[in-house]
């Protein structure tokens, strides 16, 4: 019997898990994928929004501003990359600048500090590559950029180290209400085993599938639409093309195509916004990428799209009510929803975690732990060391002198850390998201075989079980011949 079962190990579920781990509760996280941060949380704009876009009075507005204000502390505690680079919402000659005034007034009502409207002269001094038609923009200095992989993993690892159990590769098959709480029937994809888990509370943080979880138990039905966004990621050689996050005036489908630097030094352009029926539809399309190229030019001129190194797509969980659905279900005691978490979900995750954890605390009369440790240390980046420190590190651990990924200059030592740390990597994508091995210009063309060798040796695991991202994505499907051992 668990006190709390959290369904979903994206940034929302992981943030909730970490905050719930402050209390004396037996908690677990159930995730159908092979790793945390494997769906919506891995494919987004990586933006910490200032909070001027959400309608005042909504959960999005409240939690966005609250989450933004928490980010400096969260970044320090969890040792994750975060930068307040500021954001601009640009207006062109064809658009009504009154739209910026509306956003600024909305932001002030939401409690966003430092907002101001800048004219073209001030803008070009700040961002010389803005499009020629841009006339003015809303400046939000508290806007920021973060690594969504490290943010999610930081939350999850810290939760794990504070006693939360994680069941990965585990899909919820059926939910039942019982006298003492809930019965959760799950299937472990990696072992093929079915299991029943009992719990007092269920926290539904299942992303685009959160409506399906809620609707198994509640007559208050939710309906979530998967909204696909496609992106282009550009090489680090053009990572400083803009310094701020450049937005366009928003529409009913979202905040438009943005151009932004990333915390790792790349340039990111996107997303599109297309509603899709298939909740697994993360393919990119020619139409989508053409749209990104066309629309991005309205805000930033001559975006260096010849430097694209990859494209990707992610899905946003849009609920019909157009707001986050957070709180205990009105008709099912003990079912807590954290559903409809689309943009600004990443920005709001710290606040969602605290809000839901406090609700859990009150429902279960939970006591706070005296030994909760809020600190998590990330993977050592040798580039942050001086030459003397790096030489000493290599002397003590030669693996840090063995370069595995030449594009990103990732060492074997970093990959070993990624594998052996809490909730360590068990796939190529797991290594990539933790270390960036395979994220460079060649997109893992050179380093994949060596990373597979390290996984085979260190986990250890059979090489034919190593996949891109878990069960069903294995690279090796058989042997074409057997070699006799030479005596």
* Count of helix runs: 12
Largest sheet: 8 strands, mixed
> Average pLDDT, to the nearest integer?
96
Rg estimate, integer Å: 23 Å
Shape: globular
Please count the beta strands (DSSP E, at least 2 residues each): 22
Structural class: alpha+beta
Q: How far do the termini sit from each other?
A: 56 Å
Q: Summary?
A:
The protein is α+β, with helices and mostly antiparallel strands. The chain has twelve helices and 22 strands. The strands form five sheets. Strands 1, 2, 9, 10, 11, 12, 19 and 20 form an eight-stranded mixed β-sheet that branches. Strands 13, 15, 16, 17 and 18 form a five-stranded antiparallel β-sheet that branches.
SSE blueprint and pairings:
Layout: E1 2-7, H1 11-20, E2 27-30, E3 47-48, H2 59-78, E4 82-83, E5 87-92, H3 98-110, E6 116-119, H4 120-126, E7 134-140, E8 144-146, H5 148-161, E9 165-167, E10 170-177, E11 182-188, E12 193-204, H6 210-217, E13 224-234, E14 245-248, E15 258-261, E16 267-270, E17 274-276, H7 286-296, E18 308-319, E19 325-328, E20 335-339, H8 345-364, H9 387-396, E21 403-405, E22 410-411, H10 412-420, H11 428-435, H12 448-458
Parallel strand pairs: 1-2, 1-12, 2-9, 5-14, 12-20
Antiparallel strand pairs: 3-8, 4-8, 5-7, 6-7, 10-11, 11-12, 13-16, 13-17, 13-18, 15-16, 19-20, 21-22
């Amino acid at each position: 019997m668990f006190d709390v079962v959290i369904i979903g190990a994206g940034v929302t579920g992981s943030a909730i898990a970490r905050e719930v781990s402050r209390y004396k509760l037996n908690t677990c996280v159930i995730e159908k994928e092979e790793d945390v941060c494997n769906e919506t949380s891995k494919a987004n704009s990586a933006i910490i929004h200032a909070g001027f876009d959400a309608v005042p009075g909504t959960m999005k507005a409240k939690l966005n501003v609250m989450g933004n204000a928490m980010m400096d502390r969260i970044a320090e505690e969890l040792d994750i990359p975060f930068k307040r680079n500021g954001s601009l919402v640009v207006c062109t000659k064809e658009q009504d600048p009154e739209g910026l005034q509306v956003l600024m007034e909305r932001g002030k009502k939401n409690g966003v500090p430092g907002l101001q409207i800048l004219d073209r002269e001030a803008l070009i001094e700040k961002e010389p590559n803005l499009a020629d038609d841009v006339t003015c923009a809303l400046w939000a200095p508290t806007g920021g950029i973060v690594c969504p992989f490290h943010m999610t993993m930081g939350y999850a690892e810290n939760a794990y180290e504070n006693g939360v159990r994680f069941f990965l590769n585990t899909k919820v098959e059926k939910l039942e209400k019982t006298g003492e709480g809930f019965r959760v029937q799950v299937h472990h994809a990696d072992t093929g085993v079915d299991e029943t888990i009992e719990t007092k509370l269920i926290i539904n943080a299942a992303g685009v599938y959160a409506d399906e979880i809620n609707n198994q138990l509640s007559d208050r039905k939710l309906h979530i639409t998967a909204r696909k966004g496609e992106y282009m990621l550009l090489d680090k050689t053009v990572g400083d093309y803009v310094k701020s996050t450049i937005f366009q005036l928003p529409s009913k489908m979202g905040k438009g195509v943005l151009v932004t630097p990333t915390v790792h030094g790349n340039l990111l352009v996107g997303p599109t916004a297309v509603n899709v029926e298939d909740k697994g539809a993360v393919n990119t399309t020619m139409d989508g990428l053409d749209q990104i190229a066309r629309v991005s030019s309205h805000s930033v001129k001559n975006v260096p799209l010849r430097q694209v190194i990859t494209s990707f797509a992610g899905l946003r969980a849009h609920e019909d009510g157009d707001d986050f659905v957070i709180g205990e279900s009105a008709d099912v005691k003990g079912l807590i929803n954290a559903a409809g978490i689309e943009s600004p979900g990443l920005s709001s995750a710290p606040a969602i975690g605290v809000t839901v954890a406090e609700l859990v605390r009150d429902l279960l009369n939970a006591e706070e732990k005296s030994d909760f440790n809020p600190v998590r240390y990330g993977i050592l980046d040798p580039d942050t060391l001086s030459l003397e420190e790096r030489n000493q590190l290599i002397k003590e651990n030669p693996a840090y002198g063995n370069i595995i990924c030449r594009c990103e200059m990732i060492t074997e030592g970093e990959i070993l850390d990624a594998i052996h740390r809490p909730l360590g990597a068990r796939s190529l994508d797991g290594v990539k998201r933790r270390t960036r091995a395979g994220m460079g210009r060649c997109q893992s063309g050179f380093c994949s075989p060596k990373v597979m060798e390290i996984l085979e040796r260190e986990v250890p695991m059979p090489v034919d079980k190593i996949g891109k991202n878990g069960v069903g994505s294995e690279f090796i499907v058989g042997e074409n011949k057997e070699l006799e051992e030479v005596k």
